[in-house]
Design brief:
- The protein is mostly helical.
- The protein is globular.
- Helices cover about 65% and strands about 0% of the residues.
- It has five helices and no strands.
- Helix 2 packs antiparallel against helix 3, helix 3 packs antiparallel against helix 5 and helix 4 packs antiparallel against helix 5.
Amino acid sequence: MFGMPLPRSTPILAALALLTATGCGTDSALTVPDPVPADELEQILSTAIQDEFHAEAVYAGVIDDFGSITPFSNIIRAEVRHSAAIARLYGNRGWSVPQSAWTPATVPHFSTVSEACSVGVEAEIANIQVYDDLLAGADLPADVVRVFTSNRAASLNNHLPAFERCSG
């Protein structure tokens, strides 16, 4: 087999033959890392969804206090989409979605819209850091990476600049 050229249509067989011929068989260091254990993944998802729930509650509190003002009225809808995307990750695994640990009554309220916007800046920076930490901390499944990366990008590229504009 090793002396005969392989047809061009079988690159996988050619690569396997090369690995075998060079001493790299199935016992080599070419292994795929184990996925993150289910209990660890569930904790990672919980961290992410509770952070989104917290933002929803804070922004709902601002809307309760000051009316349906921008950017809060727009960003709260995005936060709901973010938590729904994470909830789908739970559902895809047959897990129950946790309840929010937050309500507008259990989060800070602000004296002015400008103060609320300043806190929004801080919250979005913290949210970006949460996703950075979660994405760097474990070998996450591809669907989780996609959702976390998308949520992070929305915070960085949309929410943070909107809160920076309104904070003065």
